[in-house]
């Protein structure tokens, strides 16, 4: 362990996965560093790995344990995977939270939702403004992305300047918010950059990224050509897209109706901070009944097939009195995130059933990505000329490819996934340590570790079904009545007899216990072991499956 | 109800979904038809909808109830979604099963796996051979697909000829098995075709399909250029691809090792029926340790990311003593089926971690689809000139688009999803009736209906976690001891106290029951209702979540 001051970077989440971003920068001797945190995001649960969980965040335990050394939390932009856990995790972190106006508003809503004080969020100005946080000075450099006011961070440290790009794309005409400004980037980089910590999402996309502005003409044409109602869905946070869609609809003489809480919230927030001065007027859905279909445009949340969102409801049975008819058009102005294909396909089939024309991405005609493609990344490497590059925001294969890209340009790089502590030096980045990382599950009003065994038990019950055996012994260790079996999540008919499984298990367990030696019957552990073994054997024989088993032993005393 | 003889088609599975194909053709008056069945496939369970289930088939109840009127079962090809349920469903169907040699061998293995007699499968010759089954005469017309000997069925009926394509593509050079033969199709169609029942999978693919032969050169080149070991995965049943990969490997001086039971089974079956006379010799994996990496080729099962298959094992920790190193190449000669992206991505990340070069589909360079694209479908419509077209093998949106395609050519069509009884007439197809259809879950040694509530209970336990309350009353309806609470799949620490949830629920339920009126305590239903309500209220307060609850009430009598 060295006593020298060093500058380190460590991902608690977001490196080796796409989602739940949470990064730390530390400065000082290894035993006593001051820290800042960048982003406090979530990822979403699924039935395969985390049934019943509400949200998943990176486990902040490493920094919680030294929260007094955390000098600030910086939020780069308002996407859930960067800001979604701030409300729930802040109580154990307590540091001041900094963000630009739009992001700050969204972060305040997250604090409110969690019952925390929204005034803990401090709104900061764009670069060249800087925030001092311990040994760090942090500025918000505008980049473009798919949500307004997305910022890269310029982090000045005693060891030099670091650029943390956050999520970014090279869009000179993003429609809402500041453009990506290459001249500014060059200016910020001109005195040397110690390390570039950079988005890797689209490193496998070979062509230069396209601008949000490229969508205006095709979307406008679509609105004009469509004969019936037009519905469009996209990510609610893509305010520029909402604006493009709404203005195109207005130009095509369509009245605009917005459906879905997330979209209303984003539009209201963007207006509140002065970002959406030219968003057309909208009509309440309940007043839209009289508008002819060909003069109507619906902006609906739920582009990923979320079952309760407006798009799914519209496709299923209508929403707020509005419903679709043959000849209407449904535009997916969005990309389907891997894992959501089935849910999106389900909506599309429901639309097809109603004779609705479905228009999806069609090779980028109606959607552009929010992330920098491979040539854009190369261009940034060229402009910033960092002394080292650390790929972030990617699965392992993205990080590895991004590191190769940097090294091809003689920029030293390391592939550092969650928990790798990287020292940033003038000779390049170097992994010096590994700390434990993991996932924190957020559920109801609790949070717990992914490895606590809770979700494992849920998955077992889901895969195996459940048998509960209830046994009552008297004070002499003799059975009081028969064993009682309850079954949940198992097929219990055998040879056409209802609940035959329970009856047969009850008979068998009762007989087994009656025949058992007294020293077995008097020992709860032995009883449990014996009962489980019998149930497993019998269930395998009767239904071909070993269930999850709970044994409850009552001993009645006089 | 008409007493006239009519010819009908009905899908029990496979129309309105991709998977679990099961089709019926019926002839006779509505009250007394004779039937044949085409295909008895499965679809695969998932955690979202069917956790713990082994396989899913279409519910055959409609035909089971009149199994004495089923004159034959015809299997078009050896894919799981066409043959996978034959062994498990045959006992309630009992009709003779017909298939060509390769398919018949696979079907026999399915019968054996289910403990049924493999000799029930009858091998039939290719067209112009025909099988008589009640009022039907059925011939197997060779088409091409991604498994050997795939056949369309030529079904002659008293009302005219029907062509049931099965899965098909227009491949004149499929590498293994007969080519798609347009002249034969024209010959079969020349006297008029009453109805064409046709694969719709790729109706949205705008370009003509490509041949299996197009892959030979790129794959051969890849094998030669690669410096380390090469691993390739594809669908085990794609025997032509296995052959292409193996021959290319041999040409590049590589010894071939086959990993995975499914692949061994397919290769052995193809050889047994004389289809793979030129497959190169293979080496047992256990003897491959001495072969230099650059002279080794591994053909591995598990292209869809299946956790227990050879590809996943290789990526994780090696398989049969073989493991991957930096510089080795892993080729996905396959398409990722929607829903499997995350599982495949998981393998790719593990490979990236080991420095393995990953090569995937790359715009069709190393994989071609087994289904006819839009122009191929149009060409078939043109050659067959049917009096009516019924789209099958597609989700609703595929069926609807395929019907539009036919109608654009003045071929009458209907979109008939599962359960629609379609009368086939010279004036075109007509939906005349709807029957109930559904899903049959196959699990362990049982089968049960998807709507039996079993899986619903599993999903509830997985989403909510479980609380079991065990209560013992004496003969007077007084509590004997405290209520006993067991919890599974819930976070039970409150304010840092282990199992606090159980203790608090026990206290609360005990007090509630002690205070309850005697007439409540003496009534099991009232006790259950009271206990559930208390647990829900308390759990919501303590952990913010309402669990699934089982209440077990014991009444001890003297």
From TrEMBL, chains A, B:
The keyword Zinc applies. It is an enzyme of class 3 (hydrolase). Residues 19-219 form the Metallo-beta-lactamase domain. The chain crosses the membrane at residues 6-27. The keyword Nucleus does not apply. Its EC number is 3.1.-.-. Keywords: Exonuclease, Hydrolase, Membrane, Metal-binding, Nuclease, RNA-binding, Transmembrane, Transmembrane helix, Zinc. GO terms for molecular function: exonuclease activity; metal ion binding; RNA binding. Pfam families: Lactamase_B, RMMBL, RNase_J_b_CASP, RNase_J_C. This is Ribonuclease J. It comes from Rubricella aquisinus. The lineage of its organism: Bacteria, Pseudomonadati, Pseudomonadota, Alphaproteobacteria, Rhodobacterales.
């Amino acid at each position: 362990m060295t006593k020298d001051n060093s500058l380190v970077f460590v991902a608690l989440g977001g490196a080796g996965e796409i989602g739940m971003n949470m990064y730390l920068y530390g400065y000082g001797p290894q035993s006593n560093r001051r820290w800042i945190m960048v982003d406090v995001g979530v990822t979403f649960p699924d039935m395969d790995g985390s049934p019943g969980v509400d949200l998943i965040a990176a486990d902040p335990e490493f920094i919680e344990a030294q929260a007094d050394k955390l000098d600030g939390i910086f939020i780069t932009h308002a996407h859930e995977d960067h800001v979604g856990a701030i409300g729930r995790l802040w109580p154990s972190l307590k540091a001041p939270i900094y963000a630009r106006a739009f992001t700050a508003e969204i972060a305040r809503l997250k604090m409110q939702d969690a019952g925390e004080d929204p005034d803990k969020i401090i709104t900061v100005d764009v670069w060249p403004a800087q925030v001092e946080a311990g040994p760090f000075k942090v500025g918000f450099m505008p980049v473009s992305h798919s949500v307004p006011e997305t910022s890269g961070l310029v982090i000045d440290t005693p060891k030099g300047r670091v650029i943390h790009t956050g999520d970014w794309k090279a869009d000179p005409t993003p429609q809402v918010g500041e453009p990506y400004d290459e001249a500014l980037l060059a200016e910020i980089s001109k005195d040397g950059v110690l390390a570039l910590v950079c988005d890797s999402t689209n490193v496998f996309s070979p062509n230069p990224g396209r601008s949000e502005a490229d969508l205006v003409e095709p979307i406008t044409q679509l609105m004009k050509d469509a004969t019936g109602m037009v519905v469009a869905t996209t990510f609610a946070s893509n305010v520029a897209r909402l604006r493009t869609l709404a203005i195109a609809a207005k130009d095509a003489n369509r009245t605009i109706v917005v459906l879905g809480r997330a979209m209303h919230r984003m539009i209201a927030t963007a207006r509140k901070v002065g970002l959406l001065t030219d968003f057309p007027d909208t009509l309440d859905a309940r007043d839209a009944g009289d508008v002819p279909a060909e003069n109507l445009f619906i902006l609906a949340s739920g582009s990923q097939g979320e079952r309760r969102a407006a798009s799914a409801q519209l496709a299923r049975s209508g929403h707020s009195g509005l419903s679709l008819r043959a000849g209407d058009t449904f535009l997916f102005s969005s990309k389907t995130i891997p894992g959501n294909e089935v849910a999106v396909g389900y909506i599309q089939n429901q639309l097809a059933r109603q004779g609705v024309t479905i228009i999806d991405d069609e090779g980028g005609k109606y959607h552009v990505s929010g992330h920098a493609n491979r040539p854009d990344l190369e261009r940034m490497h060229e402009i910033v000329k960092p002394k080292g590059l650390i790929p972030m925001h990617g699965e392992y294969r993205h990080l590895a490819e991004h590191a190769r890209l940097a090294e091809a340009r003689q920029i030293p790089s390391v592939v550092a996934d969650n928990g790798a502590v990287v020292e940033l030096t003038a000779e390049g980045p170097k992994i010096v340590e590994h700390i434990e990382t993991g996932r924190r599950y957020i559920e109801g009003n609790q949070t717990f570790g992914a490895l606590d065994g809770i979700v494992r038990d849920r998955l077992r019950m889901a895969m195996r079904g459940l048998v509960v055996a209830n046994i009552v012994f008297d004070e002499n260790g003799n059975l009081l009545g028969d064993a009682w079996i309850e079954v949940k999540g198992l097929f219990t008919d055998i040879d056409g007899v209802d609940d035959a499984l329970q009856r047969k298990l009850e008979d068998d367990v009762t007989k087994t216990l009656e025949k058992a030696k007294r020293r077995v019957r008097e020992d709860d552990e032995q009883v449990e072991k014996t009962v489980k073994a019998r149930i497993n054997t019998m269930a395998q024989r009767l239904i071909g499956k070993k269930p999850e088993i709970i044994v409850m032993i009552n001993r009645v005393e006089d």
